[in-house]
Write a structure and sequence with these properties.
Blueprint: H1 18-25, E1 31-32, H2 45-63, H3 73-85, E2 94-99, H4 101-113, E3 119-124, H5 128-135, E4 140-147, E5 150-151, H6 153-165, E6 170-175, H7 189-201, E7 205-209, E8 235-240, E9 252-257, H8 258-272, H9 277-288, H10 291-317, E10 323-324, E11 332-336, H11 343-352, E12 356-357, E13 359-360, E14 373-377, H12 383-403
Parallel strand pairs: 1-12, 3-4, 3-6, 6-7, 7-8
Antiparallel strand pairs: 2-9, 4-5, 8-9, 10-11, 11-14, 13-14
Bound molecules: 4'-deoxy-4'-aminopyridoxal-5'-phosphate.
Residues 36, 101-103, 127, 176, 181, 209, 211, 240, 242, 247, 252 line the site of 4'-deoxy-4'-aminopyridoxal-5'-phosphate (PMP).
């Protein structure tokens, strides 16, 4: 039977993530900078065991029951307090929805906001799985280039004007202002203010995806969240427990005006009714007991140490003509080869001959415009693997660059 004849049009827009495809190739002897996983030693396992037992003992009846689509009220309240400490004020006309990871929030936002042919704007490059989530709803995705300070505001304005002049409808601007995935870049304060001004001037929604803001490990002070500066209710803020506790909990949240949250709840109802009640009670208790707050400095230290190791290895081993970012947040370093290089082609040499893996950069560009970058994860590999992996990567790059000499 040919299932292809029966697939919906939108199904053909789904593409296997290059990261997942890559994982198939990666055997035990390959050092992988490819994934996007936290260091498992950062998970507060013992505290989670204790909290789970307590939750099941004291409120097992509620924790194992169906719950409200918006989420467990205790968790929503704890999150309000948590965000408050992160500079986001509690606004009367705002609410929270708890999602299955922030990945679900991306899908729900696409579902609620995007009609086929609408324009959405992202940083370029941007989070691959956001592109995939939005793409199903058939928007035209316009990527705006970045520099070391984040999205380039003049380029953003130019594109907004172009789209508007062509009669296009822009639904939102999606940004990851802190420790961006994939580049590791943190948007400067000046750019943040300018972005909000542009959004206000052109009356646009902004989606602020903030998985890494609570584990900022830079030496300088962390720029304010866009949501903390949003006086017009145009920022839809989202974050996740994946980096501050553990991704296996699959818990994320969105904070936005009640009106937006209500639409997201309606959309979520038909997707999965609600997020795991048990996990929500566990997370509420982890926040209430201060487990998460106490664990955050430890996570920052692990990330900072591993980032420093990778930066040190890069400056020791990398050849001239190769450049990379120096992140203050997030889990990734973005490495760029000379313009004529193609990191998808290099990958085969890297994995098969040198036993090292990474994610080629092209798929992070909404329109695939650049192919000479790669994303390196520094949080999952062990310290000795970071050094050895960078050494191998540099050998693979040398061999490849010799092969393609212009
Ligand atoms: N947004 C960004 C920018 C991410 O990097 C990630 C995870 N790597 C997510 C969303 C989704 O994470 P989760 O579903 O685990 O919350």
């Amino acid at each position: 039977m040919d299932i292809n004849k029966l697939l919906a049009g939108r199904t053909k827009l789904m593409r296997a993530s290059e990261i997942r495809e890559l994982l198939k190739w990666v055997t035990e002897d390959v050092i992988s900078f490819g994934g996007g996983m936290p260091d498992p030693s950062s998970f507060p396992i013992n505290e989670i065991i204790e909290v789970t037992r307590d939750v099941l003992t004291t409120k097992g009846d509620k924790a194992l029951q169906y719950g409200a689509t918006g989420g467990v009220p205790e968790l929503k309240e704890e999150l309000m307090r948590f965000m408050n400490k992160g500079g986001i004020g509690t606004l009367g006309d705002h609410d929270v929805i708890i999602t299955v990871g922030s990945q679900e929030a991306l899908d729900l936002l696409g579902r609620v906001l995007i009609d086929p042919g609408d324009y959405i704007i992202t940083e370029s490059p941007t989070y691959l799985a956001a592109i995939q989530a939005f793409r199903i709803y058939e928007p035209r995705i316009v990527g705006v280039p970045m520099d070391g300070e984040g999205i380039i505001i003049e380029e953003l304005e130019r594109r907004i004007r172009e789209i508007r002049e062509g009669g296009g409808r822009i639904k939102f601007i999606y940004v990851i202002p802190t420790g961006q995935n994939p580049t590791g870049i943190t948007m400067s304060m000046e750019r943040r203010k300018a972005l909000l001004e542009v959004a206000s001037e052109y009356d646009l929604l902004v989606i602020e995806d903030d998985p890494y803001g609570y584990i900022y490990f830079g030496n300088d002070s962390q720029p304010s969240r866009l949501k903390a500066m949003d006086s017009e209710g145009r920022v839809i803020y989202m974050s996740t427990f994946s980096k501050i506790a553990a991704p296996g909990l699959r818990l994320g949240w969105v904070y936005a005006t009640k009106e937006i949250i209500r639409w997201l709840e309606l959309a979520k109802q038909s997707v999965d009714l609600h997020t795991s009640t048990l996990n929500q009670y566990i997370a509420a208790e982890l926040l209430r007991r201060g487990v998460i707050e106490r664990n955050i400095p430890r996570i920052k230290e692990i990330y900072r140490t591993k980032r420093d190791l990778m930066l040190q290895a890069l400056s020791e081993y990398m050849q001239d003509g190769v450049t990379w970012t120096k992140p203050s947040a997030g889990m990734f370093i973005w490495l760029s080869l000379p313009d004529h290089a193609d990191t998808s082609k290099l990958l085969e040499i890297a994995i098969k001959k040198y036993r090292v893996a990474y994610v080629p950069g092209r798929s992070f560009y909404p329109n695939g415009e650049r192919g000479n970058d790669m994303r390196l994860n520094f949080t999952y590999p062990k310290p000795q693997e970071i050094f050895e992996g960078v050494r191998r990567l540099s050998l693979a790059i040398s061999e490849y660059l010799r092969e393609i000499k212009p």
